[in-house]
Structure formats: C-alpha cells, structure tokens
Design goal:
The chain is 27% helix and 24% strand. The protein is α+β, with helices and mostly antiparallel strands and 503 residues long. The protein folds into two domains: 301 residues, FAD/NAD(P)-binding domain (3-Layer(bba) Sandwich); 162 residues, Cholesterol Oxidase, domain 2 (2-Layer Sandwich). The structure holds flavin-adenine dinucleotide. Flavin-adenine dinucleotide binds next to helix 1, strand 10, helix 7 and helix 13. The site of flavin-adenine dinucleotide has 42 residues, from helix 1, strand 10, helix 7 and helix 13.
C-alpha cells in the first residue's frame, strides 16, 4: 500500500518513520517546509537546534482573532521538517491516566488504554532522547522558582510522567541531546532515510485532497511554486490542529452551511471539522530582576547552557475535576537578541471549558481561514475563575525566597487584585502553544466526531488523521510527547486498523 503522510511535524514524522520501519508499505512523507537532511548531515540551521530558547524562523505566521474582538495574537507554528517539535520548548510530559481514558470513552473502544499506551510513550522517549537533566544544569532562575515553590509547601514531584501523580514541583524531563533540540524528524525519520520504501517530498504545500466519490485517492498542491500531485492508497493527515482541518475544509469536507458560506463545494458532510478547538489558556506575569540573579546567571552560562525553561509546578484549583488542573512555570533568560533579560511566570489552565474553531472565510473573493480560540468565553466563567486562582497561587509561590529576594512583579503589578485580575486575564490571556482537538475522536459524526477511535475519518475511505487534532480533549499536559505517542500507536497498529470493521 502507498501511504501519503501530509505534514512532517511531531505526529507526521513519528507516524511515517514508525510505519516505514516495518517495511510493509511504501511511505511518502510530505512537508510544506524545507528538509535539512539528517542530523548527522550537519545541514540544519543553528537556531533550530539550539534548545536554550524558542526560535522564530520557519514559522507559518498564523494569528488568532476571536469573533467580536479586535485583539489578535500570534500562533507560533513551525513550517519545517519536524514541525513544532523543531522549535518547541522540549518539555517532555506525557499526560495523565484520565486523559487517555477519556479518548477511549469518546471513541467507544479501549484503544487508548493507559497501561498499554505507556509502551508507545516509552518508545517515543527513547527515540526523542527524553531525560531529566541534573538539577545543577538548571539556570539560577529555574532553581529559584523551584525552591520558592517548595518553600510555599508544594511537594517535590518524583516523576511528572507518572500518569497517576498529582500536584508537585517538577524538574521537567526534556527531549534534548547535548543541548540539541531532538525533534521528531531526528527521532523517527532519520532512521528510515535511505530505505527503499520511504521518501520525502519537502517544500510541497498540499492544498487539496483528491477524491473519487467517498474514497480519497491522493493530494495536490504546490511544490516550489509548481503544481504538483501524488496518488496513494491511504492519505494520513498530520498537518497539525490548524492545518489538518484546513485541508479537509478546503477539500469540501465539513459543515455544509459553513462550507457554503465560504463558497466551497460540499464533498462530504462532517460538521465537526475545525470545531472543538482547544489549547491551554495562559497568562504571563512579568518580573524585574533585582539582587544577584543576573550576575548568577552570567556566571552559570560560563559553565553550562542556560535553558529558558525547566521547572513546572502542577497545582489543583478549587475548580479542578482531576488530579490537578494547572501548570505554573518559570520562563526566563536572555531575550532573543541576547541584549536584555526577561523573567516570566506562566499560569496555564489545563482543563479549559471554552471551545474555539478553525473556520473557512471568503474575503475579497479568496479563501482564508479564521482561527478563533475564544479562550475564557465559557458561559459559567469557570476558565477565568480558575486562572484567577492560578495567578494568586503564582503570587503566593513567588512571595517566597529565593524568588522574592531576586525578583519583583512588574506586570500586571501587585496592585492588580480581585476583579481587576479577572479583567486583566480577559484582555491579556494567551495560549500555551498546545492547539488540539479540531478533528476529534468520537463515535457520532452528527455530534461533532471527525475520526473514529483509530483515527479513521468517518464516512470516507483512504483518509486518517494522526496529529494533535484527534485528541477529543487536550491532554492535562504539554502536547508534544502525547502527539508523538498517539501517532506511534496508530502507526504500530496500522495493519490491524485497516482490517477492522467500521462502527
Ligand atoms: C513555540 C512552541 C513551543 C512548544 N513547546 C512545547 C514543549 O515544550 N513541550 C510540549 O510538549 N509541547 C510544546 N509545544 C507543542 C508541541 O510542539 C505540539 O503540540 C506538537 O508539535 C504538535 O504536533 P502536530 O503533529 O499536531 O503538529 P505540527 O508539529 O505543527 O506538525 C504539522 C506539520 O504539518 C506541516 N503542514 C501543515 N500544513 C501543511 C500542508 N498544507 N501541506 C504540507 N505540510 C503541511 C507543517 O509545516 C508541520 O511540519 C510547543 C509548540 C510551540 C509552537
């Protein structure tokens, strides 16, 4: 069988590499961005390898614009082999038992059984070089935040990747090798480069799925500006939580009324495509260094790499429905131009109730896509209340030494309290870089399900999805490792899935 995987990001690189390794199928991995070859070829741009901070090159340039709001903000997404795993923060976190139980429940089969799924996480950890750095490798800022959280009474987390562990202060595992961001292409594609059954089509931006009735037969788009197409027996979408629904919608797969409004001819009625968009809404507190922090950081960077991230605190708000519902974490170091310093604490809600969407829009005669996260818009106002609690908890933690001796809050500023915090969250909230759920697993297409529990698109032959978009609920964790693990699980069971009857 010829399998075309569209998107070489975390999900696509993992799926394609894992499937090609078996040698049973011909696998073509398509990527809109460039491929710089294997890690050992030394062709990669330095900033994409340097795991100290997040690079800004090779980005799709997407923005969020909520309906009725004139505020827009950047949605970072990498356009390069490895996708977002090639520019992300490398926090390697799995999620918790209830995440995967919810996916199985939504799909009506125990395919995501947490204990079995752990095998896929283990394989991903190995391929992506996941390991916990010694604490002394952490920057002074990360160490100060860790010590303040312990002083605030939070327990040390023995293992953030124990899927049954609750609150705690974690020294976060990272997928780095000697300071290199070890992306999914290095982990899963490099081992199969050169195999006869595997090929890469880089710089090929797919714009449409080719269809013959209910069967998807290939893809078409532009490669280096020239029209290009590929045919295959199976197309696996892995273009990410924005890209995968965009491709389906462009191809006429989606909600009939939405497609009609955007002037797209309906090919397949599947109302959930692009809906149910989730991420972890976040707010950022900014600090000014006082005391010795900058001097200590300069001394540290003479001996070791200063990573911007590393300490994550898991906390449980009064609104939590699970083991914990929030990450509070420190991010700081040199600004990208290396000329200044920045010190931040993020508060991110991991179990949001608000839902957004990716929507086709016809503007000035051409087709565009609106990305509307609509964070903190739930009618119960639970999301904003939980985040308000999170900001207060972050302030409680940062009121302890050594953090308090070294830093003071600048924005929103300690004068912002009570209702003013809620107002600030409403205006200033951002994302945690974890979009998911726009092609959700579920049983009933009329109720918004796009794929079945095995990632097969409802009502169509020859089309699967294997990226963060299939999570019916975003993980109570960062999303890179869970996305790789889910793609690994789908690839590893590919032949069995093909043979299974549809519900
Ligand atoms: C700045 C940043 C920091 C992050 N930090 C962390 C972190 O520390 N830990 C963590 O767990 N998660 C982190 N994440 C999130 C994590 O990286 C993502 O959840 C994960 O990479 C998503 O994988 P994916 O396969 O769904 O999508 P992606 O990795 O985005 O892959 C999609 C791929 O498809 C390609 N593509 C899209 N459309 C097309 C098309 N039409 N034709 C061809 N190719 C196409 C894209 O170029 C891309 O390569 C971060 C994300 C960002 C952006």
């Amino acid at each position: 069988m010829r399998v075309i995987v569209v998107g070489a990001g975390t999900g696509g690189a993992t799926f394609a590499g894992r499937l090609a390794k078996e040698g049973q199928h011909e696998v073509v991995l398509v990527e809109a961005g460039p491929d710089f070859g294997p890690f050992d070829g030394h062709g990669w741009p330095f900033e994409m390898l340097d795991s100290r901070r997040i690079p800004t090159t090779y980005d799709w340039g997407l923005e969020n614009q909520d309906p009725g709001s004139d505020r827009s903000y950047k949605l970072e997404r990498a356009k390069i082999m490895g996708g977002c795993s090639a520019h992300n923060g490398c926090a390697a976190v799995r999620g918790i038992r209830s995440d995967f139980e919810k996916w199985s429940k939504a799909g009506g089969a125990d395919f995501w059984n947490p204990d079995e799924f752990l095998e896929d996480f283990a394989a991903v950890d190995e391929a992506l070089n996941v390991r916990t750095l010694p604490f002394e490798e952490f920057s002074p800022y990360q160490q100060d935040f860790y010590h303040a959280a312990i002083a605030a009474g939070l327990p040390h987390s023995n293992n953030i990747n124990d899927i049954d562990e609750g609150i705690g202060v974690s020294i976060c595992p990272m997928n780095k090798k000697g300071g290199i961001r070890w992306n999914a292409a290095f982990g899963f594609v490099d081992p199969v480069r050169g195999q006869d059954n595997f090929s890469i089509e880089a710089n090929f931006e797919v714009t449409e799925l080719l269809m013959d009735g209910r069967r998807v037969t290939g893809v078409r788009g532009f490669k280096m500006g020239e029209a290009h197409k590929l045919s295959g027996d199976m197309v696996v979408l892995a273009s990410g939580a924005y890209g995968s629904p965009m491709l389906m919608l462009r191809s006429g797969i989606g909600d009939p009324a939405t497609l009609k409004e955007a002037g797209i001819e309906l090919r397949h009625d599947l109302p959930g495509v692009g809906r149910n968009l989730q991420d972890h809404p976040a707010v950022v507190l900014n600090y000014q260094a006082k005391g010795q922090l900058i001097g200590r950081t300069q001394a540290h960077e003479k001996l070791r790499l200063n990573y911007d991230e590393g300490t994550i605190v898991k906390v449980r708000s009064p609104f939590a429905r699970d083991l914990f519902d929030m990450h509070i974490f420190s991010v700081g170091g040199r600004t990208p131009d290396l000329a200044n310093w920045y010190w931040q604490v993020y508060v991110a809600l991991l179990t949001p109730l608000s839902r957004g969407q990716v929507r086709p829009v016809r503007k000035d005669g051409s087709l565009h896509f609106a990305i509307e996260h609509s964070h903190v818009t739930d009618l119960e106002r639970m999301d904003v209340q939980a985040l308000t609690w999170g900001v207060e908890e972050a302030r409680r933690i940062t009121s302890f030494a050594p953090f308090a001796t070294e830093l003071e809050e600048r924005t929103p500023g300690i004068g912002t309290k009570g209702q003013a915090i809620q107002d600030w969250i409403q205006i200033e909230h951002q994302h945690y870089y974890h979009p998911a759920s726009t092609c959700s697993i579920g049983r009933d297409p009329s109720a918004g399900a796009v794929v079945d529990v095995y990632g097969r698109v409802h009502g169509l032959e020859g089309l699967m999805v294997a990226d963060a978009s299939i999570m019916p609920y975003v993980t109570i964790a960062n999303t890179n490792i869970p996305t790789a693990a889910l793609a690994h699980r789908l690839a590893r069971n590919f032949d069995a899935i093909l043979g299974m009857n549809r519900a």
